[in-house]
């Protein structure tokens, strides 16, 4: 079962981030058309067809991911690079399992920065971008959970 949803043009990244820099996108946003999925449970195999399992994952995501992203922000501010790397790695796995891209790739870059080349301003920019994109998934999950009651 594929629960993929399109990513609205308004949620396209406001910046392009790499291990070297985060550069604001100044180009005009593309006109609406086919877009990438917001999330996708299909990578979880047959268990993704279990409605109760999917519901539990959505509920956990809505509660835990915003808390983890807030904690990530705090640890970046505190320059606790080992904890930043651990949180980024954990969040990357969570978002990656749901195929939430490009957030998972950004978290992988954040993990690498924390381990090898900490740059607080760059890391905060990446964290903000991931938080913004994850918030869209949280809103979608909240709507879907409310509709399924």
From TrEMBL:
It comes from the Bacteria. Pfam families: Hpt. The keyword Phosphoprotein applies. Residues 50-149 form the HPt domain. InterPro entries: HPT_dom_sf, Sig_transdc_His_kin_Hpt_dom. Keywords: Phosphoprotein. The modification Phosphohistidine is found at residue 89. The keyword Phosphoprotein applies. Gene3D superfamilies: HPT domain. PROSITE patterns: HPT (PS50894). This is Hpt domain-containing protein.
